[in-house]
Amino acid sequence: MNRGFGARVFQVEPTFVYVSCQPGAEKALKAEWEILSQGRATFSFSRPGFVTFRMWEGWKPVALESVWARTQGISYGKAQGNSQEGSFPDVIQRIKDWPTPVQVQLWYRDRWIPGDEPPKSDSDQWPEPFLDVMKLGDPTAKQILDVVVVDPGQVMWGIRLPRLRGDLGTPGEKWMGTLAEGAPSRAYLKLQEGLARNRFPMKPGEWVVELGSSPGGACLALLEKGVNVIGVDTAAMDPILSQKFKGRFFHIPTTAQKTFPDQFPKDFRQIRILGGGLDWLFADMHIDAQDSLELVGQWVFEHQAALKGAVLTLKLKSWDQAALVPRWVERFKSFGFSKILARQLSTNRQEIHLSGLTKKGALLL
């Protein structure tokens, strides 16, 4: 197969796909792609946080619905250069010769687990020639050309394959938000990224419950969206929540298994009498993922009349549990959810985001 770049023509047989992921998730990614491709995608190259596959003959250039893949793209090769100077003339020339408008995104493969990054990342210190690469292309173009720094002195580059749902279109599909001053925990970032990806139609004034809410990072992000939040957790909540959002934040100091109707705020109980109730359910509990799912299922049944959707963070005790994720998704679907998004977020650690809408919620899209 020949692909043209203006006046230049390059041989790129066979087709290779590059995939970025969280460091440590490579084994789970490879096993997942073995299943998704029915054994036709062949592993080619791997570094922590970055994997390439050789695709099969007849493969259509569409992204696979992968839990562990953050970015996917058609590889157009790799180049060697001076990483300190950002000197990759071959890549720069090829970008300049690209025949259609592209948005050029330059990024490093992930090398740290979210939350373990050093204070100053590499992307804070791009050499000047690298910045010149970032200026190439059209920032308004829909098609993204990735230039990925895989190792010092080595870049891989290619065209991003967009997915149907959940993509942000950012460099490396990373969440670009920052932790708010005074945020109780990193759950603030996970909540922000999850809602940006699933695009739930939440509205100010709606009622939200978070199971496993302490110390309150996710609650803070939700309160900033104008909803009323009920946190359910035996552990203490950060005082900033009740101080800053008095009348909209409520804490029930018990477990998700032992929460009773008379413990809910008076306003919420009155809304239920009038036919309303819980609009959105969130859960981020430090318990076994299957147990978390079953608890969520009980809450969904109890509040099904008004519920519009749910967002779960499911913890993996070990990477071996990655094989159970399809089963967890099916169980979640059995609760009546559609528009399901199952993804390891760029802000997740050894865990996944799982969200979906009820019939009532789906009608709001």
Largest sheet: 7 strands, mixed
Q: What is the terminal separation in angstroms?
A: 41 Å
Strand content: 25-35%
Q: Which structural category fits the helices and strands?
A: alpha/beta
CATH topology type of the largest domain: Rossmann fold
Using the coordinates above, name the CATH class of the largest domain: Alpha Beta
Helix/strand order: EEEHEEEHEHEEHEHEHEHEHEHEEH
Count of separate DSSP helical elements: 10
Strand line-up across the major sheet: 4-5-3-6-9-8-7
The poorly predicted ranges are 1-12
CATH superfamily of the largest domain: Vaccinia Virus protein VP39
Radius of gyration, in Å, reads: 22 Å
Helix content: 10-25%
User: Quick one: how many beta strands?
Assistant: 16
Domain count: the total is 2
Shape: elongated
pLDDT average, as an integer?
Answer: 89
**Architecture per CATH nomenclature, i.e. the level-2 architecture of the largest domain:** 3-Layer(aba) Sandwich
